[in-house]
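Researcher: Let's continue the batch. This sequence belongs to TIR domain-containing protein, and it's 380 residues. Same format as the previous ones, please.
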Amino acid sequence: MSFIYHLAIIGAPSAEQIFELETAVTDAVSGFGLTLGQEIGWEVAPADFAPYQRRSSAAVFFGDVDANHSSLSSLLRGGVPIVPVVSDLNRVALEVPEILQSLNCLSYANGGAKRVATALLECAGLLPKQRRVFVSYRRDEASQAALQMFDALSAKHFDVFLDTRSIAPAEDFQTMLWHRLCDSDVLLMLDTPDYFNSRWTAAEFGRALAKGISVLRVGWPEACCSDRLGTASLAELDTSELDASSGRISDHAIDRICLQLEEIRSESHAVRTVNLLSNLRIGIEAIGGEVIGMGTGRCIRVRLPDERMVLVYPTVGVPTSTTMHDASMNSPDESVAILYDHVGLHPQWLSHLDWLGQYIQATRWVKACEAGWQFADWRA
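Model: Same format as before. Here are the structure tokens for TIR domain-containing protein:
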């Protein structure tokens, strides 16, 4: 079966821990309209865990004396996040294999299953704040359908950008629109007959591709499928699914589009994370360092050529002051970097990040395209 997301419990969990974690994850994802074992793959103590690279995935490792798993090396190399869990933080060396000991561990005694479930879902991009969609459409052709998609996706706890709902009065409309596009996982394209005849919708489509954001094209019955849509995923509407007089899409079609968008969103999140990790690995290995792996909080541990360790938090989308605060609080005694793709971000936002970086020296911003350059002279 092909899952949309893929999660696993490995190591040495007790029956009670498995039950508690499964219950906590089931409750958390039910609000998205997703079910464990159906849309979300759920493997308990598998002999081998090898998730498809184009799906968001993560694993939790329950430690114990001599606990181990054959997939750990391949998961770390492939950028699959692993959350190590121990009975007590003083027992990390006893309960966690050496290959995981450099990652941040959680104590099950501190927060129990709910804390572990939140960490696992964050690693797979399954917290509500991580689910972002941009609706691209022509107001004169698909306003009603756009509002329907806004309501349906918001009900599934997506953060949906719709131009008429998401930009405050007096904002620089176009600059803010590009900024929000950069912060999205998926561009939902309502492809009406004149979609590509508008400068702005055509630019939204093109810039989404340039940014590596996945596109789900919802094709109107009378719209021709453009040659530009070679990499887009397709969700066609037939004449029975669109009310020509009101412009409304049928409820059945809305449900189908939402499920397909969830699948595209998982792939987009996974691919953009891998792209950030690849940029980091290329830069670090070029200067003689090593990327060890990704763990709790999607934190990547990096060893610099002089053996110093740095924790790198990759940001898919727009980094914020909260991103910096969380990274600093999660790793108060470590050297910390926040990795991000700056292309397309609002100029004032970039200026704000620079200003913030001048006052908080313990955590530094690192542009993905400059990773090797900046880590070659690391001073945080």
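Researcher: Any comment?
Model: The mean pLDDT is 91.
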